[in-house]
Amino acid sequence: MEQSFPKRPFRTHGGAHVPHHKNTAHTETRVMPPPDEITLPMTQHIGAPCVPCVKKGDHVYVGTKVADSDAYVSVPIHSSVSGTVKEIKKVIMPGGQAVDAVIITSDGLMEHDPAVCPPPEIKTKQQLADAVNVLIAGDGNENAAAKYTVGTAPISGTKGKLACDQLVEFWGQFDPYTMNTILCSTATMTDMLKIP
After folding, report:
1. pTM here?
2. Reported confidence tier of residue 118, pLDDT bands at 50, 70, 90
3. CB-based contacts of 185, cutoff 8 Å, min separation 6
4. At what angle do helices 125-137 and 186-193 cross, to 10 degrees?
5. What mean pLDDT value characterizes the chain?
6. Distance between CA atoms of 127 and 132, rounded to whole angstroms?
7. What is d(CA 178, CA 106) in angstroms, rounded to the nearest whole number?
8. 89 strand-pairing partners
9. Spatial distance between the Cα atoms of 182 and 105, rounded to a whole number of angstroms
């Protein structure tokens, strides 16, 4: 008699059913102390690896940019502690690849970079228009958003008419990235666009 591996050896419908033991539900919330040292690999996503823009001995704050790249798909890396750059060396990632990394020794103070501040609050229609213009045209550093026309790749449909299906299809092409979208009613959008 021939034996074969069953098609469904384990019950998987509905996911794993694990007991709900919330043994810490009634304990006090605690703030974790900053680590003594952090390692920031220059490859952290599917985009291009970053290049360190700090050197050994540099003082950094929370939020200080420590690495960047000119590549089209890339994101700068910032320090999550204040302290001193200990070294820049190769480290082995969980996948086995060797990548450059910035090692920072924390001073324990968690001081925020004075150069980093939140964006200004948008209070007027002109400020909203300026913010949208930066998204469309870039900030003057040759980083303008790509422009597409409905009816030409990668947006299908009739030229000049954008239906919801074409918008969803276009957004789907950015997987695994997610798009930043405002989901609101027509009335809310109208109110927002009527900001004085």
Report:
1. 0.56
2. confident
3. none
4. 100
5. 80
6. 9
7. 33
8. 101
9. 40
**Residue whose tokens read 């990394």:** 101
CA distance 56 to 107: 15
C-alpha 161/C-alpha 19 separation (Å) is 51
User: What do you get for the CA distance between the two ends of the chain, in Å?
Assistant: 81
CA-nearest of 194, 187, 77, 62 to 125 is: 194
What letter represents residue 60's amino acid? V
Query: Parallel, antiparallel, or unpaired for β 83-92 and 98-106?
Result: antiparallel
Question: Among all chains, which residue has been given the structure tokens 């704050």?
Answer: 61
Arithmetic mean of pLDDT, 122-151:
72
Please give the Cα distance from 148 to 163 (Å, whole number).
Answer: 14
* Two tokens, residue 22: 């919330």
CB 77 within 8 A of CB 60: no
pLDDT in tens, 41-95: 999 888 899 999 999 999 999 999 999 998 888 889 999 999 999 999 999 998 8
